[in-house]
Design brief:
The structure holds two protein chains of two kinds.
Chain A (H helix, E strand, L loop, with lengths): L8 H26 L14 H8 L7 E4 L4 H6 L4 H8 L23 E4 L7 H14 L5 E6 L6 H12 L4 E7 L2 E2 L2 E2 L12 H5 L3 E5 L3 H18 L3 E6 L17 H9 L2 H12 L2 H24 L8 H5 L7
Parallel strand pairs in A: 1-2, 1-3, 3-4, 4-8, 7-8
Antiparallel strand pairs in A: 5-6
Chain B lengths: L1 E4 H15 L3 E5 L15 H5 L4 E3 L4 H13 L3 E5 L10 H8 L2 H4 L9 E5 L15 H5 L5 E3 L4 H13 L4 E5 L7 E4 L12 E4 L4 E5 L2 H15 L4 E5 L2 E3 L3 H11 L2 E4 L7 H13 L9 E3 L10 H7 L3 H15 L1
Parallel strand pairs in B: 2-3, 2-4, 4-5, 5-7, 6-7, 10-11, 10-13, 13-14
Antiparallel strand pairs in B: 1-8, 6-12, 9-11
The chains are: A alpha/beta, B alpha/beta.
């Protein structure tokens, strides 16, 4: 970990760029949703960008990532092209999942993004399976498995962590604790609100910290990734974060006060990263970086707008590999 | 040609496929050191070691999901459920993940996984341990479901299941594990979607699978003595379903009785009834009849259990009804 004095600003700038890209893509997605161009559910990652960006910065392309339905940002952090993400939201054939998955199902095989998943906790055993395969094949890969604090009460979390701990699989469980499982605060869903302590019962290491500083996220997750890669030991990491938008687009957020939201926005990790760059990096470079993000977002939206819709002919071949079984 | 028990045929299929493909592994409760709750995997731990014959804790949702994840990234898991009843715990993994990964990912990820174990009634094990789960699963696009009745098909369908690039559910039967049958020495895979005429006949068709194929054969033998010639089709594969063979047989016999375990509301029998009336309507001389488990949870009491399960006499009565209607 580079201390603040010797901070590598180029590196911070690259993380800031990803966070800004995600923020701006999500804002454009919200806009398109309001215009009726995106259907279904839309769970935005705004406010939580530092978690996905800091965590994925510790990985190689070969490493696996799997997450819940709040998945756009993590998919981008794992290397997905913004156009493929936006086109998927638009339900277009050029989307990462061909327009068949939508917001909750961002898959990207070349980048080993094992998807966003719509059933709370159901994807956690999948991540454990990817890690099982890595140990079976001795391929040295690590799996990051993200989920929300709302997933901590369900079977998939407990059985997944239990199996990974039992068989010492190379995986990092990352609980993105944004304080609310939909509209219910942690204090009303968990008897023990320190989620990281769930690791104690499974006999694996744990960590817990706030995601205010993307570099700290990178450093702390990095320790767990090294533990997974070098010792094949899983870790449960609770990263405390906050979403600035509702659970989904239909959520008016009446379960929290405007003051609480405003207080959290003051700690916005994106702004924190930018402040550091303003102080210690080249202003012209920062302006150019932000302009390039704007251009990339604009191109992604245009790509989504201009892309064709999928044809019904894709339905059967994507249901089965080989002849349709009916 | 050798004579093998049903469980030996299943084991031989798994061993042969694990020998030819290192990515195949077996995971489930008691599959290793205990040698399998029903001894299907007997000796496999010794042969392949604990990395490939993996004893799992009692966590069906966890290890079924683990299998799906491992399959997504290139392994070919065989996940044993001690019985299919317990797959209800893993239903979310099978329905939402195994069956849908390929579609949700726009065809990027496959899920080449086998889920297997004994299905339907055993003997006096009560309502929670007697489910015929194939009806739930055969409804789901993205899954394939097979249910062998004989050792040779058990081996050939299991080998095909392991090599298939889609999720395949193999419905075995506790009450068939010990039956013997001839298995060709050179048997490779038995392809899915091909029913087998296990007894030719001319006046009625009985469509069955798994243990009910044997019940249907007993019924057909009895009916022959009263002069009714019955053709028995063993489906072997429920999804894909061999519609052509069913329809061709019904066009010949003009009558159809479907026999399966599991409840009458919906299910495989209802699906077959629909297809037969749509595709062979003008050839039918009687309504398509079904003989199923009665529409109640399975009772423990031995007599009541037998009363609820499809029996030879109920099959005979159904065939008589179909035949005499037009006689």
């Amino acid at each position: 970990m580079l201390g603040r004095q010797t901070m590598d600003h180029e590196h911070l700038a690259s993380l800031y760029r990803q966070m800004l890209l995600i923020r701006r893509l999500e804002e454009e997605a919200a806009r398109a949703y309001a215009m009726g161009k995106i259907g279904g559910f839309l769970h935005l990652y705004i406010g939580q960008e530092a978690v996905g960006v800091g965590a994925c910065a510790t990985l190689t392309r070969d490493d696996y990532v799997v997450t819940t339905y709040r998945d756009h940002g993590i998919a981008i952090a794992k290397g997905m092209a913004p156009g493929a993400m936006m086109a998927e939201l638009y339900g277009k054939a050029t989307g990462c999942s061909g327009g068949l998955g939508g917001s909750m199902h961002m898959f990207d095989k070349p980048n080993n993004m094992l998807g966003g998943h719509g059933i709370i906790g159901g994807h956690i055993p999948l991540g454990v399976g990817a890690a099982f395969a890595s140990k079976y094949n001795k391929d040295g890969r690590v799996t990051l498995c993200f989920f929300g604090d709302g997933a901590v009460s369900i079977q998939g979390f407990h059985e997944g962590v239990s199996l990974a701990a039992l068989w010492k699989l190379p995986i990092v469980f990352i609980c993105e604790n944004n304080e609310y499982s939909m509209g219910t605060p942690l204090s009303r869903t968990l008897s023990q609100t320190d989620v990281s302590l769930k690791a104690v019962g499974y006999g694996i290491p744990h960590d817990r910290f706030f995601a205010t500083d993307v570099l700290e996220v990178e450093q702390r997750i990095g320790q767990a990734v090294e533990r997974a890669r070098n010792e094949s030991m899983p870790t449960l990491v609770e990263v405390r974060t906050y979403r600035f938008r509702g659970h989904s687009m239909s959520d008016p957020g009446k379960y929290r006060t405007a003051a609480e939201l405003e207080e959290q926005k003051q700690k916005d990790p994106l702004i924190q990263a930018r402040l550091k760059l303003e102080l210690g990096w080249d202003a012209a470079k920062l302006a150019a970086l932000e302009a390039s993000v704007e251009a990339e977002v604009e191109a992604a939206v245009k790509f989504a707008e201009d892309s064709p819709e999928p044809d019904a002919s894709v339905l059967e071949p994507t249901t089965y590999d080989g002849p349709f079984a009916s | 040609m050798r004579t093998l028990r049903y469980r030996e045929a299943l084991r031989e299929a798994m061993i042969e496929e694990m020998e030819r493909d290192r990515t195949v592994f077996l995971m489930g409760e008691e599959v290793g050191y205990y040698n399998g709750a029903y001894k299907v995997s007997e000796g496999m731990l010794e042969k392949f070691g604990p990395e490939r014959v993996v004893d799992a804790p009692i966590a069906e949702g966890g290890f079924a999901g683990l299998g799906v994840g491992a399959a997504m990234v290139g392994l070919r898991p065989i996940i044993e459920f001690m019985t299919w009843n317990f797959s209800a715990i893993a239903f979310d993994q099978i329905l939402n993940n195994a069956a849908k990964i390929r579609q949700m990912s726009g065809g990027q990820y496959n899920c080449p996984i086998v889920f297997r174990g004994p299905n339907a009634s055993a003997k006096q094990v009560g309502s929670q341990h007697s489910h015929a789960m194939e009806h739930f699963y055969a409804q789901v696009p993205g899954l394939k479901v097979v249910a062998p009745a004989f050792p040779a098909d058990a081996k050939g369908l299991m080998k095909a299941a392991i090599r298939d690039d889609n999720p395949v559910l193999v419905m075995e039967s506790e009450t068939l594990y010990s039956i013997k049958g001839e298995v060709p020495d050179d048997l490779d895979v038995v392809p899915f979607g091909r029913a087998q005429i296990v007894r030719p006949g001319s006046q009625a068709t009985i469509v069955a699978y798994s243990r009910m194929t044997h019940v249907a054969l007993d019924a057909a033998a009895a009916l022959e003595k009263e002069g009714i010639s019955v053709e028995v089709l063993d489906l072997r594969s429920l999804r894909p379903l061999d519609e052509d063979t069913i329809v061709a047989s019904v066009k010949k016999t003009h009558r159809c009785v479907v026999v399966h375990e599991g409840w009458p509301y919906g299910g495989v029998g209802a699906e077959i009834s629909d297809r037969v009336q749509r595709l062979a309507f003008d050839w039918l001389d009687a309504p398509v009849l079904r003989v199923t488990t009665r529409d109640v949870p399975m009772p423990y009491n031995a007599k009541l259990e037998q009363y609820c399960m499809p029996q030879v006499d109920r099959v005979i009565a159904a065939v008589r009804r179909a035949v005499h209607r037009s006689a």
